[in-house]
Amino acid sequence: MIHVSFSTLVFIYLFLFMALVFGLWIAFGWSRRRQEAKALVYRVRCRLCAFEFEDPTDTELPRCPRCGNLNERLPFRIL
Question: In this structure, are 68 and 50 located in the same domain?
Answer without folding.
Answer: yes
